[in-house]
Amino acid sequence: MAMVARATNADPGPNAAPPSAKGAPVPGGHLARLARLGGMASRVAGAMTAEAERPSGDHRHRRVSVERVVAGPGLVEIHEILAAIEGRPAPRLDAVALWTAALAGRDSLAVAALDRFCLSLGSVAGDLALAHGAGGVVIAGGLGLRLAEHLPRSGFAQRFAAKGRFESMMAALPVKLVTRPEPGLFGAAAAFAAEHG
Length: 197
Description:
Hexokinase, domain 1, three-stranded parallel β-sheet, 9 helices, 5 strands
């Protein structure tokens, strides 16, 4: 099973972008170039798309992308859709209030949304790792810090590894969470030091 561990040092490790001439690894394993998911579609968004695009007159999105589901604000979208599916009224909360309620376990619908978020994140991270032949995955930024206590006990690792015939390989890939605030500054400093000595 994929191990989820904290990485408190400045090493950003592998990312979603394959190395290029400008993003080649520098000494210490750092990557000088970072990339976003960039509109990559996935089956993870499928269930959310079906609900978000259902013929109810509420057409907020023409397309539900991976970023809409597994980025920090995605928790709000998942929460609203789960409420609609269950026919439950849900108070309209901003992302910070919803994350706080979910992580504290104060609201069952918020907790269910967080569980779905972690499952989706595991699927997407595993898909990206497999597609790019990664030697590991690092989750950084506010998300890594926010999920440090919850992610290891969620269904993330099972979904990360659930890649059919590649399951044993995926289960062996390390997954690390960068929990240091402002990790980008450390990565930039390491890249600068490597280039300019």
